[in-house]
Amino acid sequence: MLDLDALGKAMAAPLESYTGIQKVIEADQEIPPDKLPKERMVYNFIVRTSEPRQSMVVKKDVVASDDPNFEKDIEYSYISSPQVTVSINAYGDDAKQHIEKAVEWFKIDQLGPRFLEDYNTVIANVGDASNRKTFLETDFEDRWGFDVILEIEDTIKVREKTIEQIEITDQDNNTKKYNL
After folding, report:
1. Residue 50: closest CA among 1, 115, 113
2. CB-based contacts of 70: which residues, under 8 Å, 6+ apart?
3. What CATH code is carried by the domain that includes residue 34?
4. Global pTM?
5. Which of 24, 27, 22 is CA-nearest to residue 39?
6. Which of 37, 50, 112, 127 has a CB 3.0–4.6 Å from the CB of 147, allowing a cystine?
7. HEC states along 35-94?
8. What is the pLDDT along the chain (180 residues), one digit of tens a residue?
9. Which of 52, 54, 115 is nearest to 86 (CA)?
10. Backbone region of residue 137 per phi and psi (left: phi > 0; alpha: psi in -120 to 50; beta: other values)
11. What is the DSSP letter of 137?
12. Largest alpha-carbon pair distance within the chain?
């Protein structure tokens, strides 16, 4: 299963570089307001419900056994492509320009899509940048944001030991070996 925390942290540096924003950080962190940079981008992963089992591809392979007493095992690979939404918001005076650059990063093949290849992830959809200005008790907070839907290849492997030979002993203590 893909580690979304690692993916988010890895995306931060290229997004900072391309957008020119001061800092890209994960949402839901306990950061005091006086420690937050004014110009910042915040991302949050929203995992969609898992897919039904029927949408998994099941692959069966004969592989070398990791038990020295046996020659081969059967390995099943369960492959699915769950979707994850990344919600991205930019804050600060130039929030709109930063978020538009972030949208470009996800849309241009040589940038976001190429970066995500290393994580077995493709971009299913990039939403439009929109004004997400919010009223906070006594004042407004300016922010711009958009959502990206990622499709992640997830593979779970299960290995089964095999029986390669059986021995049958009859009433007269005669033993026969059968290779399977």
Report:
1. 1
2. 161, 162, 164
3. 3.30.2000
4. 0.75
5. 22
6. 127
7. HCCCCEEEEEEEECCCCCHHHCEEEEEEEECCCCCCCEEEEEEEEECCEEEEEEEEECCC
8. 668 889 999 999 999 999 999 999 999 888 887 888 889 999 999 876 555 555 778 899 999 988 888 888 999 999 888 889 999 999 988 999 999 999 999 999 999 999 999 998 999 999 999 988 776 666 666 789 999 999 888 888 999 888 777 888 888 888 888 877
9. 115
10. left
11. T
12. 94
Q: What's the Cα-to-Cα distance from 168 to each of 95, 109, 147, 161, 175, rounded to whole Å?
A: 76, 62, 64, 20, 5
For residues 145 and 91, the answer to whether their CB atoms sit within 8 Å is no
Q: Which residue has the tokens 């994850």?
A: 84
Q: What element of type H or E holds 10?
A: helix 4-19
Q: Residue 172 is encoded by which pair of tokens? A: 């007269």
Residue 118, CA distances (Å) to 7, 18, 51, 121, 127 in order: 10, 19, 23, 7, 22
Q: Quickly list DSSP for 82-135.
A: -EEEEEEEEESTTHHHHHHHHHHHHHSTTTHHHHHHTTTEEEEEEPPPEE--EE
Tell the residue number behind the tokens 């399977």, with chain if given: 180
* Domain of residue 124, residue span: 4-179
